[in-house]
Structures are given as C-alpha cells and as structure tokens.
Specification:
The protein is an alpha/beta fold. The protein has 2 domains: 147 residues, Winged helix-like DNA-binding domain superfamily/Winged helix DNA-binding domain (Arc Repressor Mutant, subunit A); 126 residues, Rossmann fold. The chain has a 6-stranded mixed sheet, covered by helices on one side. Strands 10, 11, 12, 13, 14 and 15 form a 6-stranded mixed sheet that branches. A hairpin with a 2-residue loop joins strand 3 and strand 4. About 13% of the residues have low confidence.
Length: 326
C-alpha cells in the first residue's frame, strides 16, 4: 500500500482510498499511476510509459490512450494540469509524480470499510504529445470513454407540464390555421381577375405662355386624379408616372398605353384665346388614339374658383358613361 497526501493507493487492486471512500481505476490508468508513483520525483517519458503499459504488439492510438489515463488519474485525485499537486506535465518529455510518497505496512494502519465509487468519466478530444499544461488541463476536464473514445451523454428524460403541452398544441393549431387562411387568400387572389378599367391622367398642358396658369393646370390635373380615384373598385387610375410628364410635342399615347398597361388616357389643355380662358379635356383610347369624349370649358376670369371641380366631374361622368356602362 502506497500513501501520498490524503490518499492510499493499492497497486494490485487499482484502488485509491481517501477518507473511507474508494475509487477504483481502470487497469491502464492504474498501471500508469503505479509507474509514476514508483518513479516519484523522476521524469517518466512517454516512451517509457508506452513500453511499460502498452505492449509492443498492441495497435492502439497511444497518444489518445495515454491522455485518457492521465485525465482519469487527475480526475480521481482532484488534480489539475495547470496547478498540479500530484502529476506534473513536462511538455515534449513526459510526466513526473511530485507529491511525497510513503509506503504503509499492512496492519499498521486501519482503513475503514470503503464505499466503492466509480470515477466519473468526462468527454475529451485527443491531445497530442507536448501540449502546454493549460491546454492539457482543459483536455483533462473533458470526459473520455474506455480506450480514449468519447462517451455520448445519456439522454435525460424531462417532464412536460400539462400547461406546456397544451400551449404547444395550441400554437401548432394556430400556425396551421394561419397557413390555411393564407393559402385560401392566395388562391382567391389568383382566381379573381382584375376587371377594373385601367387609365392614366396626363398632366394638363399650360399652352397660354403665361406662367401664372401653371398652377391652374396642376390643380386641374390633381382634381381629376382625385375624383377618378374615388371609385377604386371600378377604376385603376395612374397619375404620377414619369412617362406621363413628357412634353406634348414628344408624347406618344400608344407608348404610354404599353408602358403602363392602360387602355385609355385623360388629358387636357389650358389655353387663352382672344383674352378668354379655355379649358379642354379629352378621353382617348391608347390603342388607336381615337377620341371617345372631349369637352370645352370657358369660364370668366372671375369664375375660376370652382373650375377644377367642374372639369373633374365632367371627366368622371364621361368615363362612367363610355367605359363603365353608366
């Protein structure tokens, strides 16, 4: 029986005893510890350990196996590679047992009946020869299985409360219902064609040459767009596309129709003839550029306050009659 620190080590049985508790080492870790204790204070090289513990005709991963043994020994002793009290690592050389060792004679020391425990095994990865103690300490704390192979953690059953189970089922039901509603809406959108009349409103042109009438032309345009957009279920109105702001001399109604996918356009002019103001509004089919409707408005200079409403209502009435069936 060999004694060091608070431990007694039975080499033959491969057992460590401390305060009445016995920890049984596996055969290879026990043989490694026995050799280190036998050579206490001396460096035991990895080559010596391989010759003494692993027979020459055994084909195993020696580095992994030795690292596993050292990890098991340190686990049993509560030792650390970074701050060793028993097993010291000498990088690129081997290991040294640094604690004082004493032999106990049988009968001189009474050992209480031990309570046998098994050294917990933690998982690790292979650590090569000559790693620094800090890295080896990290490896020692991980658990390895027999022969240095990682041991998978056992699955731990968990109790699920009825409330948690009900909540999970309710969540699944809500998700399924939401997905179903989304699919129904998508199908409805796909199967229901857009039957609205698509048309564009070209900005009214100020042809008076007087900049003061630019504002009137813009007001007439905005009022017409707003009035037509008030019927969104029957009309799809476009009034702000860049292609609509092309000057009249370069305007191509067929190109507008193709670009915006509209079949009709509304456009108008603000003119001044013989000192009198004239507004003309048109409804034109883009495909053949034929006029479906046109109307002139000649308000007096003092009667332009409600002109935008008069023009926009007239345009809306013409569209309702000619394109919407009444």
């Amino acid at each position: 029986m060999i004694r060091f620190g608070d431990f007694e080590f039975d080499e033959r049985a491969g057992e460590l005893r401390r305060n009445g508790t016995t920890t049984r080492l596996e055969p290879q870790p026990a043989r490694v510890l026995a050799l280190l204790v036998e050579r206490a204070g001396e460096v035991v090289t990895r080559a010596e350990l391989q010759q003494r513990v692993w027979s020459g005709d055994t084909f195993v991963d020696f580095d992994r196996g030795l690292n596993y043994c050292i990890a098991q020994i340190r686990e049993a002793l509560g030792d650390s590679a970074s701050e060793p009290r028993f097993v010291e690592t000498l990088p690129r050389r081997g290991y040294r047992f640094i604690a004082p060792v004493h032999e106990s004679r049988d009968g001189l020391k009474t050992v209480p009946s031990p309570t046998t425990t098994t050294t917990p095994v933690a998982s690790t990865t292979s650590v090569g020869d000559g790693l620094p103690p800090s890295l080896e300490a990290s490896a020692d704390r991980r658990s390895l299985g027999r022969g240095g192979q990682p041991v998978p953690d056992a699955a731990q059953p968990q109790n699920i409360s009825p409330l948690a189970a009900f909540s999970a089922v309710a969540l699944v039901v809500v998700l399924i219902a939401g997905a179903s509603m989304l699919m129904i809406r998508r199908d409805a959108t796909k199967t229901k064609p857009d039957t609205r009349v698509r048309l564009a409103v070209v900005p009214f042109d100020n042809e008076t040459g007087v900049a003061d009438y630019d504002r009137l032309a813009q007001t007439l345009t905005d009022a017409t767009v707003a009035r037509l957009a008030a019927d969104p279920y029957r009309l799809a109105v476009i009034g702000n596309a860049s292609v609509l702001r092309v000057p009249r001399s370069k305007r191509d109604l067929q190109a507008i129709g193709r670009s915006l996918d509209v079949g009709h356009v509304v456009l108008g002019q603000v003119q001044q003839i013989d000192g009198h103001l004239r507004i003309t509004a048109h409804l034109i089919r883009t495909g053949d550029q034929s006029h479906l409707w046109a109307q002139r408005f000649e308000p007096s200079p003092s009667d332009t306050e409600h002109l935008d409403r008069e023009v926009s209502e007239a345009v809306a009435g013409a569209i309702a009659k000619r394109l919407l069936g009444g």
